[in-house]
Structures are given as structure tokens and as C-alpha cells.
Amino acid sequence: MAKGCRSHIPAASKLRPELKFEVGQMSTTNELNKENEKVLKAMAAAAFLVFFSGYMVAPLIPALSHEFSATERQIGWIVPAYMLPYGFSTLFYGPLSDRFGRKTVLLVLLALAIFTTSLISLAWSAQSLIVMRMIAGFSAGGIVTVGLAVVGDLYPYGKLGRAMGWMFGAIAGGMAFGATFGAWLNPYLGWRKEFMILAAVNAVIFILLFKHRHLLSGSSQTHPIKVNDVARAYVSLLKTSRGSKAYSFIFLNGLFHGGVFSWLGFYLSQRYHLSDEGIGKALLGYGIPGMILGPILGRLADRFGRGLIIPLGFFVAAACAFLLVPVSPLWMVTIVVTSLSIGLDMTHPLMAGIVAALDPKRRGQAMGLNGFALFTGLGFGAVIFQFLLAKGFPFTLTVFGATQLGLGLLAFKAFQFERVATPSNKPDRLVMQPER
Description:
Blueprint: H1 17-55, H2 61-67, H3 72-75, H4 78-100, H5 102-120, H6 126-140, H7 143-154, H8 160-184, H9 191-211, H10 227-239, H11 241-262, H12 264-272, H13 276-283, H14 287-304, H15 309-323, H16 330-345, H17 348-356, H18 363-388, H19 393-414
Helix pairs in contact: 1-7, 1-8, 1-9, 4-5, 4-6, 4-18, 5-6, 5-7, 5-9, 7-18, 8-13, 8-14, 8-17, 11-17, 11-18, 11-19, 12-13, 14-16, 15-16, 15-19
């Protein structure tokens, strides 16, 4: 540096002690934030794989029914066979993560996911495939639930929208890419090899999270788990006005998306006579908006509140169901399928953020109930759609669309107080308007 241009920045050794502390604290905070982001990305990858595994078989219903000499409706149970045990198991894994810490429960579940995903590839009949899917759903249940609790531990509520956007963007991407590549790769690899590859990728995620396991611990309780205490805690979450609304809408929204998406492969096969590869291509766009727009929608919710975005998400999804009723050109259906995921991205992540803030001391249990509502909704949605399908796709899609439209209207009232009022001296704190 030239003599006339000496730096006016003092060397670190000459800083006052309090400034040295501030510089060191900022450096530590930046490093911690970087590690948090790595954990967030790894948890998003784990959530992606859970839903990839859950939905990769949905568009294969026609092919699997032919391979195992079963009807489409019999094979159709492979989706709820995974989702329903997963949903019920989250009621146990959430409290376990509160009691023993997130790290132990999460790593055990990831290890089980590796084993059970490999096990599915050995199915020899339709019945054995359904049973193995049930085992996989129950043993892997809680990965997303505990992962969401980890994210809730790492990020304050004022920044949780973006983080939840990453998680639910990954969920939407897992549903879409699972459905797409599950069908697309079946003629080339076979669905059995696809499950083996999934198990290997799960092992990679396990290694990544094990490396950052010190950030997974969260808070744990010292007292033993009592069934009555757990039940009372669930009741207390549901008795609050804010909690009861959030959980109810999460379940009902899951019914819609689980029903419509689970049977899109069969819809495309029946109406447009597409092959497995054609179905995969038609569903490819579903996850793209979620992976791109998820964090952006989360930031908007953090800034402007959830009270407007959530109802609009219900309306977007309802419109997509109505647009699938008439016979339209395939390119239009592809656009509608892509838009359908935007409805999911505008609702589930934002409602999960509300749930994560209900009770920080029992966040694992709160997110366990969230997982129960979501996965049972997805599973029962597929069953209800299958039951109504006897009257045809137009009738079933109209019923689902009308129900979702009604939920959107109710959501304006239910979430009207989800507004952000950010004091200047506490930028990361969310202040709720009092409920009347």
C-alpha cells in the first residue's frame, strides 16, 4: 500500500477488548449460521427422499397391477399403506425427540429408512409390497417431523418462513420427482433397483447429518415419558384456538393434495393413454415451483404475514382441480399439474411455521402432531379419492375442488390474525394481534 494511503483500520491486536469480543462473536455467529444452513439443506434432502419414496410408486399403479396380476384399486393401496403408518407413528417420535433429543431419534430413523427402503425391493406379490410399504412408513415415520423440529430449534420465528419454505419445497419436489422418475426410470432400471438407489442416497444423508450431529440435539427433558402427560400435551395443543385451526387446516389440505396427486398417474393413463415414461414427463413440473418459490414464499410470509397467502393457496389448488375436470390438451394439463404444487407451497409451509411456534418446549411433540395431521390427511385423501372414483374423475375432482374452495373461504377468517407487527428494537420477534 502506498505511504499516502495507509489503512485506518486498526490491527486486531490493537482493538479495544470489547471490540475484540464483538468481532469474535460476529465470526462465531457467521460460522454457526453457515452450519445451520448445511443442516437445513441436509434435512431438506432427507424430506425430499421421504416423499420421493412415498410417491414414486403412485404413477406405477398401472404397471405394478400388471406385474402382480392385481387390479388398479388393489395396487392403489400402496400409497396410503406408506402414508398412514407414517402419520400415526409421528405421534410417538415427536415426544421421543423431546425426551431424548433430536439427534438420537433422527439418526436411528434414518438408519431404519436405509434398511426398510432396501426391503421393499424384495416384494414378490401385491400383498407383500403393501405390507413392506407399511413397515417402511412406520419405521421411517418421524424423519420429516423431527427434521421440522430441528429447523424450528435452529431458526427464530421471524426467519422460520424461509427455512420452512426450503423444507416444504423439498417435500413438493420429492412428490413430483418421485412420481416423475419413478415412472420414467422404470422401463430402464426397474422399480426394484430404484428403491436400492434410494437406500444408498439415504445412507449419504445419514453421513452428512452425523457429521453435524452436534446441531441436532435441541433441548431434551430429564423426566420420563408418561402416556398421560403426552396425551395431555397433545390435547393442550389442540385446545388453543391457534393450534386447533392450524392442525385442522393441515389435515384437510392434506386430504386434497394426497387424493388428487396420488391418482394423477392413473388419470393420465386412463384419459391420455400415456406410458410410464409419458406419465413421468407430465408430472415433472409439479416440484419445480416448490423448489424455487418455497423459500421466496416463506420470506413473503415472514414479512407480510400468513393471513393472506394461506387462503390464496387454497384457491389456487381448487382452481387446478376444476381445470382437470374437462378433457383438455395435454400441454394444458401439464401446466395445471405444475400450478397445483404452488397451492401446496402457499399453505403447508406457512401453517407448519405456525405450529412450530406454538410451544417451543414441546416443539417435537407439536411437529409430531403436524406430521400426523399431514400424513394421515395425505393417506386418507388417497383412500377417499379412490372411493369416489367409482363415479368417475369429473365428479371426484369437482367434489375435491369445491371442498378446497370452501376451505379457502374459511381460511380468511381462521388466519386473519396471522399478521406480522415487527418492533424496531426486536426485528426477529413476531408479535401476534390478540384474538378476539
